[in-house]
Amino acid sequence: MKVKVNAAVCDGFGTCAGHAPDAFELDDWGYAAETGDGTVPPEDEAKVRRAIADCPVHAIVEVAP
Amino acid sequence: MTDTYRPASLAVRAHPGIAPRLLGADAPPGPGGPRGADLLGAVERAGLRGRGGAAFPTARKLRAVAAGPAPRYVVANGEEGEPASAKDRWLLRHRPRLVLDGLLRAAEAVGAAGAYVYVSDPAAAESVERALRDLDGVPVPVTLREVSPAYVAGEETAVVRAIDGGPAKPLDKPPRPYEQGVGGRPTAVCNVETLAHIALVAAGHPADTFLLTVSGSVPRPGLYEVPYGITLGAALDALTGADPDARGYLMGGFFAGLAGPAVRDVPLDPDALRAHGSGLGCGAIVVLGDADCPVAAAADVMAYFAAENAGQCGSCIRGTAAMSDVLTGLSRGTATADRLARLEKWSTSLPGRGACGTLDGAAALAATLLGGFPADVEAHLGAPCPRCAAFPVPDGRTRFAVPDESLPGGHL
Q: Do B34 and B205 meet the contact criterion of CB atoms below 8 Å apart?
């Protein structure tokens, strides 16, 4: 699984990093970016799916299964 | 040394020993030359790379669009968002027929259903309109689209958005315009200098020169046509009278940041400059002379990024503002070592966090200042810099813009 945070949509809620702290990194103001190239290890997939579902502004996209 | 930050008039000339091709007179294009797949082959063999800043191989972009489903589109991108660049305005004002010839050949080669010319400069728009009226039949409809000038308005997804009736602001990638562009269709967004090169390649010329806009502390600011691979120092010596001991350079347009004196020995070539930690970009180079200071220049440009970013991505809005705050403080002698450490962290942690390249450029500006001018930066901690003090506090309107009125009326 590979994900990407749409930087123009993210509003800095930080929900994603709460669910999956290894998959999302927040900057000093709370805006999120995917870690590395966005590849999610299989053991983190469930947490990342929760992050996708819970993002209040739907800023996270799954770019590859 | 004259400090001509707002050059009164730009010289327009080719490097000694080469015949001006891009800067020549705007003759009507010849009817012949390779077309379709043959043209794409010729463009590939010429090694043509995009002159908007990214240096992407032009043939590869056009082939990707040609391989997509019809209808397809081609856009001549003439919105020169880089304040220190004058080349695209000049080409559209003085060589509209050359640019349109390249646009129409590219449109034909990718099987486009339509073509657009995208500009913000009113004089360029007038010139293109006139040239379009003079054209004797076009293979595809050409639409002129005018947009308000802005740093981000020339970014390729901003171009597509504006043509589709939206704001001229970038979108997150992917998809890129070659996949989903105008109307969601495959679209080649090409810089106008790139299109001029396509027309020249079709006429049998190599693509071995490019346009350089030189301004700043330089006796002869200008728009110059230079051969690829010449060093920056050799080009400046031959054309501009710039002080060989200049303190530094703003490179690329603003997004490649600052470079120290050593960049003079680097060939003007996208790969060589990238390997040096800098960039050729759209070929806009500002010389920082004796009276200037790299910290003052960085503070000026960072304030510009903070004012001119698209206002879309949180990391960019907050990051450029925070970096601008530190650099303005540094230029006034009020920054602390702690704030400087934050700046260093942001310069490496913020790249990639914006939908377009603005935040990357801002981070590169900070990184190249800190990495290339450590002694200057150190000297600004605690003590106000007399050179910085000579400039007003940066307000977002950069002092490095090449103003419209400095562009000459005629051509070579």
A: no
Whether residue B191 contacts residue B52, with contact meaning beta carbons closer than 8 Å, is answered with yes
ipTM of the assembly?
0.95
Q: For the segment B272-300, what is each residue's pLDDT rounded down to a tens digit?
A: 999 999 999 999 999 999 999 999 999 99
Nearest to B391 by CA among B84, B2, B1, B5: B5
Rounded Cα–Cα distance for residues B88 and B118 (Å) = 11
* Cβ pair B96, B26 in contact under 8 A: yes
Closest CA to B7 of B233, B237, B191, B241: B241
Give the integer Cα–Cα distance in Å for B94 and A37: 44
User: Does position B263 have pLDDT exceeding 80, yes or no?
Assistant: yes
| Domains of chain A from N-terminus onward | 2-63 (3.30.70.20)
- Those residues of chain B whose CB sits closer than 8 Å to some CB in chain A are 170-172, 174, 310, 312-316, 318-319, 322, 342, 346, 349-350, 352-355
Q: Tell me the C-alpha distance between B116 and B344, whole Å.
A: 42
Interval B339-352 mean pLDDT = 97
Residues 6+ apart with CB under 8 A from A36: none
What is the C-alpha to C-alpha distance for residues B152 and B87, in angstroms, rounded to an integer?
Answer: 17
Classified as helix, coil or strand, B21 is coil
- Per-residue model confidence (pLDDT) at position B6: 65
Instruction: Sort out which chain B residues have CB atoms less than 8 A from A11's CB and list them.
Output: 314
User: Does residue B411 carry a pLDDT above 80?
Assistant: no
Assess whether pLDDT exceeds 60 at residue B214: yes
CB B80 within 8 A of CB B87: yes
Q: Which residues of B touch A8 (CB under 8 A)?
A: 170-172, 310, 312-313, 355
Single pTM value for the model: 0.95
Query: Which residues of chain A lie closer than 8 angstroms to B170, CB-CB?
Result: 8
Tokens of B133: 């009226």
